[in-house]
Design a protein that fits this description.
The protein is an alpha/beta fold. The chain is built from four helices and 25 strands. It is 13% helix and 28% strand.
């Protein structure tokens, strides 16, 4: 017996069963298996004007969580993919042919988030938009698993590796890279062609690269970059806690007014 929503194919050339009519599927199981055997370079996601294997009309995975937050809803290009268990909240735009994988969270907490074209946000990465700072991931960027980006700009053509952290007000220029578990501090500019080594600290404009065991130098760089003012809007002489926790709690209370959108209830983003 056919599964729910799966009907026998009327076309003998398509094989005995077809998924025609299901969202995102317009080819037979046999043809789908052929697609799965292709290499990434052969897979015809770009050939939307051809009859065979066009980009599916809906490539957002069922079960992806779209949240209307602060009266703004995510927008996703039709050629993008958002996996089940990924969460997009608020004023978020995902551009053409980009991929947001399982467990990733992209949330606009008072500031918009823009993901460009052909970019990949991998498993359990967190991208957070905040007030007063641009949060943008450009074209052709890979953000690795468990990376954290907050209120920063990744210009494009780069890789932010697993577990890396890029703080508020930072800018990663085109072609620069941030390696595994490296930290790019607030208000830092990593110039084009620079790679922040694994586990190292980058701070300043342009960034000075410091190994993790040189804590005295790291502390000296951190001071003038004004973490309390940049992240929390506090003066250097003000205590971070407990006021910061209370302010965060008040701001996050706005999530009480959120609405979870139904599957495919998000707005489409512009493809071009």
């Amino acid at each position: 017996m056919a599964g729910e929503g799966v009907a026998p194919s009327a076309d003998p050339g398509r094989g005995p069963w077809s998924l025609i009519g299901l969202p995102g599927y317009d080819i037979s199981l046999g043809e789908r298996r052929g697609v799965m055997d292709m290499s990434a370079d052969e897979y015809p996601v770009w050939k939307t004007d051809e009859d065979k294997y066009p980009a599916p009309p809906r490539v957002v995975g069922p079960g992806a969580v779209f949240v209307e937050h602060r009266l703004k809803s995510p927008q996703v290009a039709e050629s993008a993919y958002v996996a089940p268990t990924a969460v997009l909240a608020g004023d978020v735009i995902v551009g053409p042919h980009s991929r947001v994988l399982f467990g990733a969270v992209i949330t606009a907490e008072g500031g918009a988030v823009e993901i460009g074209a052909n970019s990949v946000i991998m498993e359990n990465a967190v991208i957070r938009g905040v007030p007063h700072q641009e949060m943008r991931v450009g074209d052709n960027v890979v953000v690795g698993p468990h990376a954290h980006l907050t209120g920063c700009v990744i210009e494009g053509n780069t890789r932010i590796a697993t577990g890396a952290v890029v703080f508020n007000g930072a800018r990663i220029e085109t072609g620069a890279e941030v390696e595994f578990h490296a930290v790019v501090y607030v208000n830092t500019v990593v110039p084009s062609g620079t790679a922040v080594p694994m586990g190292w600290f980058a701070g300043g404009q342009p960034a000075e690269l410091v190994p993790p065991n040189d804590w005295d130098r790291i502390r000296a760089i951190m001071g003038p970059l004004d973490y309390p003012g940049t992240v929390f809007g506090l003066g250097a002489d003000q205590a971070l806690m407990p006021d910061v926790a209370r302010r965060y709690a008040r701001g996050l209370a706005l999530h009480h007014q959120d609405h979870i959108l139904p599957d495919y209830g998000h707005a489409p983003a512009r493809e071009g």
